[in-house]
Task: structure prediction
Amino acid sequence: MGRAMQKQPDPVGRGETSEHTRTAIADPLEGLSHAYMRWHRFRSNPSALIGGAIVTSVIILAIFAPWIAPFPEHAGDFIDFRNRHAAPSWAHWMGTDNVGRDVMSRVIFAFRISLTLVVVILGIAVPFGVTLGLIAGYFGGIVEIVIMRITDIALALPPLILALAVSAVLAPTLTNAMIALTLLWWNWHTRLIYSITRQLREEPFVEAARLMGASRRHILFRELLPNCVSAITVKTTLDAGFVILIGASLSFLGIGAEPPTPDLGTMVSSGGGYLPESWWESIMPGVAILYAILGFNLLGDGLRDLFDVEIS
Amino acid sequence: MEPLLAIDDLTVGFRQYGRENDVLHGVSLRVDPGQRVAIVGETGSGKSVTLKTVMGTLPRPPGYIRSGQIRFDGRDVHSMSARERRRLAGGAYSMVFQDPATALNPVYRIGDQLIDILRAHERRSGNRRSRSETKERAFEILREVQLTEVERVFRSYPFQLSGGMRQRVLIGMALLNRPKLLFADEPGTALDVSTQDEILHLLNDLVDHEGLTFVMITHNLGVVRMTADYVYVMRNGRIVEDGPVTQIFEAPSHEYTRNLLRVVPRLTKRPGAPLAQEPRQSSDNLVDFQKYTKIFAASRSPLRSNRKADVRGADNVNLVVRRGDVMGLAGESGSGKTTLARSVLGLYAPTSGQVMYDGRSVEDQYRSLAFKRRVQMVYQNPGTSLNPRRTVGQILQLPLRIHSLPKEQLPDRVGKMLEQVELPRGYVNKYPHELSGGQKQRVAIARSLALQPDLLILDEPTSALDVSVQERIIALLERLKQEYALTYLFISHDLALMRNFTNRVAIMSRGRIVEQGETDDVFDAPKHDYTRALLSCVPVISAEEEAAKPAIDRAKRQQILLQME
Result:
């Protein structure tokens, strides 16, 4: 697969060349639907396949946590001192924590927070960043200078420090953490879309639309945006992993979900006090973070390969 | 005589989506030492796959070789080890790539690239040369491909050389290790005709003097006639006909070959070319260039202006396109054809002078929707002029929606537009990449006609297409012109096509119009030396056309072409 296949010429003159004898030549892809071809490529791409499976499992666990988790009540205010610091066993696959709550149940519930972070932060930052990138890339001139220099400034701020600062000024809550991260995330998308748009705006199809009298809005969102979708998808997928990581880092530092709400970063942090004896209390949530991020990264890389084929 | 290269019953294919598709079906051919062989075919004929299989550069997977044998100099290529094969490439045979702009690495000097190749070959063959010997060999090869100023070329980066010089360097590279067999992929077709002519002469000289054997794949029959002794015609993965070059051109036996020869535009007048014969009564000037000059400044800052480096895209051009004309703009790359065409659309503001459209200056009206309705453009490459992420239906609806056609009429109008360009209505849901080049160009034409314009600017609309597709696109354009009373401004570097499609023509060079007039007059009795030189370079496919070319010897021609620069 990959680029090599692209270079091969149209195998059996599917098009005009053979127009006068078209009946004689079979289309090698005849009867294959788009969906099938896409699925075939997805299937023969191991990283997309594994990444997709991991991401799907995380989403399912988060949505159906109350039904999947073995002890759903352990996600809340639950105390059972007789079972505290219990090592992994058949009853508690990932052991229990310092107040006797089932670590696995809490990990499953914690995915909810992680995914909320992903959806809220990226849901706001990506559309905002993409729109700015399209505008800067297409219009150029003073608009480009203003937008891109602001972007550069925003890129120079270290995200973790800014998030800490915002929480220090306001309050160390989940909402404030999300605000801080959103403020920092849009600029990466602006840069990416800006560079793609700058190349695309010279393409004849954009000029053709302009010569037809198409509005700027049409050119930005109907001509240019669809050509950025694959890049946005890949970047957003990879970002999802980073959001989970940075969200966990913030809650590890004490900015995030209020206890007793299960949160992966908080669990690593509070479990850390019982290392190395009760290793499962911090290692298990850590592995869960690794699992989710690995899934998003594999999926992002896989999607990049898939889109590469499709675009050219 | 033992053939140098013999391919026997070769069947090759690709695996796609779990299916195996053979793209070569039992191809057999032989190349004798010292022979010049051409493999001719259109897109998808399998000529490139054949070449790749022989050279061992077929990507596997997804490619596979089902059966067949390739013998080089009596040895079976497939039974060789990978190492042996690599040694064969670059030593026993080598390859000249099509596009000199991309085949050289832009960040290394020419000299370093040549020396690298020599060193790599020495490592493989084991006999080391001294530093000065290697350098001497590099100079020698540059002289061999008839480059002057070899010292300068040796020290240059690719971008500092002209297209023709780069092509010579590429040929030189291929010859560095004295191969027996030289492959060429579409030699010269990425170049201007005058440069192409020089390159083809060079290749012929090399075969004559160096005892080379030469195999090329090409779609250009004019090139074949100039540089081949023996021709294989391929189609859909099969060789449909083979024979000595005169036999193929004068007495082709296969229907496909005959058809191919028929659709190639001739430099002589085609009997029955409808447009060229039609008398023009109209004196209504639709487009009028009045002393139009457009200078592209080399530096944007007025403080650092560098007049010498400024490019004159158009230099004091006076040109009239009358209503109903098919006006041809011909010239080599960089001659200013496209600058003129884009000025009509208001894309370039004149440095001095002006362009009038229908009595009013383009500058005053190009922003208005009414103007956009009247002037439209068809681009050279439909692959980039159609948005790859939008369906045919969405593409065709755009102009209609901008010009506020009621929504309920859209599907029907789009269907009609497709029928107009002879495409099935069902194509509305297809994406451009699902269409062939010719079909894409049809969609682009339909889009440009959506608003019923007066003037269509055709910027090399067929140069990216196969010649048989070109013929049908030109026929379509001729039909549409009659039906909708269109005026065409047609840009092309293909003079033979120009001859048969336009009724008036302007020959451009360096931003100036060197000659203009009725097409027949310009082609039958060219007045300007440059026109004569250009016409004499065109590769043609019959003795009749050869005789009709202006008689001008190579040295004189070279002098004229250089003068124009």
